[in-house]
Amino acid sequence: MNDIASKDERVIRALNETLNLERYPDKVKNLSDEMYCICLYADEAEAQKFIERYPALTFDRFHGYVMNVLEDSKVSKLTAIQKVLEHLNISKSEAIAFGDGGNDIEMLQYVGLGVAMGNGGEELKRRADFVTTKASEGGISYALKKLHII
Fold first, then answer.
1. Same domain, 29 and 82
2. In sequence order, which residues have a C-beta less than 8 Å from that of residue 64 and are 6 or more positions away?
3. Superkingdom of this entry's organism (predicted)?
4. Are residues 57 and 81 in the same domain?
5. Gap between the Cα atoms of 57 and 70, Å rounded
6. Distances (CA, A) of 99 to 9, 90, 143
């Protein structure tokens, strides 16, 4: 599969489950912007081939059929949160993070209040301070209201 997009039903289902896409994306042939992360749509057996072939890359599964692939293992949602908080001079205890995937766990545990989306995995929910409804059901708004933030 050399194209950016495929008509594979597993990929389409994963895109719908993770991004709530109503329309399948068009192929992108020429990429000129620098990339920091790509998504690999693969089951465990397929992904293992990539992991073995590209040991310098970091593979982080956040859905049953989707993995983030990063060139720099020091880049994560946690490091992004840390940089933003530092830039805005906000303490981590004052921060709230929302997440729905396994790649959100360390971020949720770092901030003062970690909120797992209802559609998130069980491990994420166990480690969160609060579990809200699904993202597609207004989970962020629901949590902010329940926590008396809005």
1. no
2. 14, 43
3. Bacteria
4. no
5. 6
6. 25, 20, 12
Dihedral sign for Cα atoms in the order 48, 11, 99, 69: positive
Q: 84 and 66, same structural domain? A: no
Contact 103, 119 (CB under 8 A): no
Residues 138 and 114 in one domain: yes
Given a cut of 70, whether residue 129 has pLDDT beyond it is yes
Enter the pTM of the model.
0.67
List residues bridging with 17 in a β-sheet. Answer: none
CA-CA-CA-CA torsion sign (44, 46, 52, 57): negative
CB-count burial class (<10 Å; 0-12, 13-18, 19+) for 108: buried
Contact 40, 67 (CB under 8 A): yes
Q: What is the pLDDT of residues 54-107, one digit of tens each?
A: 888 888 887 777 888 877 667 788 988 999 999 999 999 999 999 988 889 999
Q: How confident is the model at residue 23 (pLDDT cuts 50, 70, 90)?
A: low
Domain of 86, CATH number, reads: 3.40.50.1000
- Sheet architecture: strand order including 130-131: 96-99, 113-116, 130-131
Q: What is the pLDDT of residue 17?
A: 66
